[in-house]
Amino acid sequence: MSGVYKAEYIWMDGAEPTQKLRSKTKIVPLGHEPPLWGFDGSSTNQAEGHASDCVLKPVFQCHDPVRGAPNKLILCEVMNIDMTPHRTNTRAKLVEVAKQYTGHEMWFGIEQEYTFFDGIKPLGWPDNGFPAPQFGYYCGVGADEVFGRDIVEEHLDKCIDAGLKIAGINAEVMPAQWEFQIGPMGPVEASDHLWMARFLLYRVAEDYGVSATLNPKPVKGDWNGAGAHCNFSSKQMRESIDVCIAAAKALGERHELHIENYGDGIEERLTGKHETCSYRQYKYGVSDRGASVRIPWQVAQDGKGYIEDRRPCANVDPYVVCRLITETVCSRIPG
Ligand code: ADP
Ligand code: MN
Ligand code: MN
Ligand code: MN
């Protein structure tokens, strides 16, 4: 069949406590925009069986690097049939808040950590017992340090091919754990690109028979958790360290609210060990990876830049993180 393309509609489901991605394919005539579409919300915890229809509204699209041209990936917001945002539609809430504070020109850069699993154990781990203790794995090289690099490389290539603003990748502290970074760009854009990059991660790993997971503490004990550090700046922060410090102080005023929304399982990850600050405490500091919020060394040096909120977990919804940071910070610093 020619004269058509495959549009992969992608949306966030109603899974609790952590929403996941779903997708399905629509064939669309070439030259046409992907239209509104529907799905069975009773199968995704988004509707009851007797009134099961939910609406998919395309909001962001890019080239589909898996199927190739002319096919596309279509990120959607979930709407009710009266076209109001569905209760699980966290993007619509972020769009509202972002609109209120456009004058601040907020930029976000998110570091997505994740862990590859082969069945019930992390990829490359022995069937019994554990690999050597953490040390050589972070940014490691060699078959004894690194597991899953071919998947990671293919994911990076696909993100670039799709036109996503991916900033870099690295192997993490726990073996089979990796990271990619998205941004910096506006709150809605950064979150859209992160959700698309997550979709591609799951999709690419699927072809290797490996599952990529965002569990914030995939292995109990003396092993690093997985986070989604959220770096951000306003126009004024990019001009003055004083405003960066004001932003760090502002985040401290709503610490509990942020912790409650920074990913299920956060208490297990933010223990005060493994480069984290306890979830019970809020502190910020220059170069301090044991703080809730880090002011990078380079930023202190330059006297301007951005700060890093280290609290969000790998499984966090970026629409929620970017909304909370925008609300908390922009209402308390000069715009
Ligand atoms: P880390 O040293 O914490 O591992 P990374 O290099 O992994 O840092 O990630 C840094 C992130 O900060 C990137 O996602 C990048 O896009 C983001 N970033 C850089 N400059 C800014 C800025 N001015 N505002 C917001 N985010 C920024
Ligand atoms: Mn990083
Ligand atoms: Mn990291
Ligand atoms: Mn970081």
Output the keywords.
five-stranded mixed sheet, 2 domains, binds manganese (II) ion, about 325 residues, alpha+beta, about 25% helix, nine-stranded mixed sheet, Creatine Kinase, Chain A, domain 2, binds adenosine-5'-diphosphate, Ubiquitin-like (UB roll)
Q: Any idea what the radius of gyration is?
A: 20 Å
Number of helical elements: 8
Q: Name the helix and strand elements from N-terminus to C-terminus, one letter apiece.
A: EEEEEHEEHEEHEEHHHEEHEH
- Which small-molecule ligands are present, each listed once? adenosine-5'-diphosphate, manganese (II) ion
Helix content: 25-40%
CATH level 3 topology of the largest domain: Creatine Kinase, Chain A, domain 2
User: What's the rounded overall pLDDT mean?
Assistant: 97
Shape label: globular
CATH superfamily of the largest domain: Glutamine synthetase/guanido kinase, catalytic domain
Low-confidence stretches: none
Give the tally of structural domains.
Answer: 2
Give the termini distance in whole angstroms: 53 Å
Content-based structural category:
alpha+beta
The tally of strands reads: 14
Structure characterization notes:
The chain has 335 residues and is α+β, with helices and mostly antiparallel strands. It is 26% helix and 26% strand. The chain folds into two domains: 4-88, Ubiquitin-like (UB roll), CATH 3.10.20; 97-330, Creatine Kinase, Chain A, domain 2 (2-Layer Sandwich). The strands form two sheets. Strands 6, 7, 8, 9, 10, 11, 12, 13 and 14 form a nine-stranded mixed sheet that branches. Strands 2-1-5-4-3 form a five-stranded mixed sheet, covered by helices on one side. The radius of gyration is 20 Å and the shape is globular. The chain binds adenosine-5'-diphosphate and manganese (II) ion (3 copies). Adenosine-5'-diphosphate binds at residues 107-109, 111, 167, 181, 183-184, 229, 231-233, 238, 305-306, 308.
